[in-house]
Amino acid sequence: MKNNFLPLIFILSVFYYTGCKAQEPFGENYLRVNKIIPLPNVRGRIDHLDINLREQVVYVAALGNNSVEVVDLRNGKVIHSILGLDEPQGVCYIPGKQEIFVANGGNGDCYFFNASTFGKTASIHLSSDADDVRYDSVSAKIYVGYGQGGITVIDANTHKQIGDISLPAHPEGFQFDNSSKTILVNVPAKNMIGLIDLTRLKLTDKWTRNSPTANFPLAIDDRHHYAFIGYRHPAKLVVLDIKTAKEISINNMVNDVDDLYFDYKKKQVYISGGGGFINIFQQDDSLFFKQVASIPTRSGARTSLFIPALRIFVVAAPAESGNPAQLLIYDISP
Q1: Is the Cβ–Cβ distance between 247 and 253 less than 8 Å?
Q2: Contact yes or no for 226/240 (Cβ under 8 A)
Q3: Is the whole-model pTM more than 0.85?
Q4: Cα Dmax for the chain
Q5: pLDDT tens-digit profile of 142-169?
Q6: Which of 79, 82, 169, 233 could form a disulfide with 189 if both were Cys (CB 3.0 to 4.6 A apart)?
Q7: CATH classification of the domain holding 117
Q8: 103-110 long-range contacts, Cβ below 8 Å, gap at least 24?
Q9: 24-58 pLDDT per residue, tens
Q10: Angstrom distance (rounded) from CA 263 to CA 291
Q11: Is residue 188 domain-shared with residue 281, that is, in the same domain?
């Protein structure tokens, strides 16, 4: 029995580190684990996160648990669970109103909650699949991707829908390009990146490609006009020039990516993937991006939050193999 068991371990290890384009760990000095915060009652998939920076509280959309977990970073514990949701996907904190906004993928409902009492203050119904959320603090507007192809615009002060943007299929990750007053949005069902005019709330251009496909997360360096696109099939990080749509670089990366971020201070891209790694890419003098780290996390830990003001990177790890769900809090190296 013992002689057969050791080769099996070797085979599984080889598969873990080489299968599905996974990489052996390296560059672990780029991030240092600060703390691990248990999410003891959370089951199933975890989706997006946001932060109340003043209170250092993170809001976790626990989609598979039908809850939003309210996590105190300072004390390292869950302080409240907002229950009774229907597959919450997008979440954002609205400082001016001290409210939490939650987009439910199951029934399309979007809820506002008081951030102190957690009582519901308003609701808006969308047709279906309310998903990713972005808050523009300058205009006090919330943008929500939803349904078979749309981004709705909500006034955070009045809790009213004030606009809608039509798209050819369901949107995934999207970001503001403040320099050009546009939104870049991933529409994976059409292998498309769309450009939306924020003034007219209209799709004005689209970029398509045959491979790779399944473009989900997206980040922007609006100072230098770069777009960072995370593809799943195959797993690739593609860097584009927003002005010309030309490809700057393309790299292999972790599987099942769902979040990625650009760090202006260090000129680095942080990526979390369900394949169980954080990947970090560094911009070099020639404007290309080279991978400098592949840091193990946990299978399924594909959602994350980069918090520049605190210089930390937060990864949400779902419950797996008897291990409870967790938030992994990493300090970013100086």
Answers
A1: no
A2: yes
A3: yes
A4: 69
A5: 999 999 999 999 999 999 999 999 999 9
A6: 169
A7: 2.130.10.10
A8: 103/130, 103/131, 103/132, 103/133, 103/144, 103/146, 104/130, 105/63, 105/129, 105/130, 105/131, 106/66, 108/146, 108/147, 110/144, 110/154
A9: 899 999 999 999 999 999 999 999 999 999 999 99
A10: 14
A11: yes
